[in-house]
Specification:
Length: 311
């Protein structure tokens, strides 16, 4: 995830041989869960001092710097070809620029806990879309049931029986649209960049670079240069970018290379738990009973949608 961002981990390049590193994958999995879980708190803190587009631009800038350093160390080169860069530009918009900005804007009016739970709906959107867009994903009773259960959980989180009382509809809609953007982006990647022949690091570095350029063009149109630079929000943005975007992507792809995408994507189910705990414990955000109960239902439904038929 990117913050929160937990996109599908299908690789757009050739399958990477599984390898082991000195730090066990379970430890790295836990670190990744913590990083992405705390990302929603960092977004909230960042928006207390800077405009949402500025938060997103800073996040992408610091994230790109981390990947650029990793590429320099490993002597990786950016991909070539106008076609590849064109598709990467679309992927950068759908997987980074758009969802990061939507989450930042949503947290102006909704708690970070709710944003983290909305992020957990991404696998539900992904399953629903893949049934239409990807011929290899066939519907099963279990996955369709998971989709229904998951969206029942969303309605529980939103408190539908209360008529969404006390809920900021615009902010919540932005967070849900952000989570929808991830599977749209990954379906696009699978359709256009599968077998591109470039490494994960090269493709991801180029993608983040393009997203940073996109925000560099958009941000001045909707914001003005800050007259002051609050330190705590700035540190939150730097941490969000360097850890929550740059390092997190490196860790994620390392886990995928070692244990495969199915295990790696299980991080999705830990993010809302950590995001909720962080928001309540550190930011003092209120929590009604429907939020954790709905979150559990969402995660149960998401888990069912990811289940594969037995062979």
């Amino acid at each position: 995830m990117s913050a929160a961002t937990t996109p599908r981990t299908d690789t757009p390049t050739a399958t990477t041989p599984r390898r082991r590193t000195a730090l066990g994958w379970r430890i790295r999995f836990g670190v990744l869960s913590l990083i992405w879980g705390f990302s929603f708190l960092l977004i909230k803190v960042g928006t207390e001092g800077y405009a949402p587009f500025q938060v997103t631009f800073g996040r992408l800038l610091f994230g790109t710097a981390v990947l650029a350093a990793a590429m320099a160390v490993k002597r990786e080169r950016l991909p070539r070809g106008a076609r590849t860069w064109g598709h990467l530009a679309v992927a950068a918009f759908l997987l980074n620029a758009l969802p990061f900005s939507l989450f930042a804007y949503s947290e102006l009016t909704i708690p970070s806990t709710l944003a983290g739970i909305c992020n957990a709906t991404s696998p539900l959107w992904g399953m629903a879309l893949s049934l239409v867009a990807l011929s290899e994903d066939r519907p099963t009773r279990r996955r369709v049931a998971g989709l229904g259960i998951g969206f029942l959980g969303v309605l529980t989180v939103l408190g539908v029986w209360q008529g969404f009382h006390g809920l900021d509809a615009r902010g919540t809609a932005m967070a849900l649209l952000a989570s929808l953007s991830y599977p749209i982006g990954w379906i696009y990647v699978r359709r256009t960049l599968a077998g591109a022949g470039h490494s994960h690091l090269s493709m991801t570095g180029a993608q983040l670079l393009l997203a940073t350029v996109q925000l560099a063009l958009v941000t001045p149109l909707f914001t003005t240069l800050p007259s002051r630079f609050p330190v705590v929000p700035l540190l939150a943005i730097a941490t969000l970018g360097a850890l929550g975007t740059g390092l997190a992507m490196l860790v994620q792809y390392g886990i995928v290379a070692e244990v495969g995408p199915t295990t790696a994507q299980m991080v999705t189910y830990f993010i809302p738990v950590i995001a909720t705990a962080a928001g309540v414990a550190i930011l003092g955000e209120s929590l009604s009973w429907s939020t954790p109960v709905g979150a559990v239902i969402v995660l149960a439904g998401a888990a069912l949608t990811q289940a594969r038929p037995r062979r």
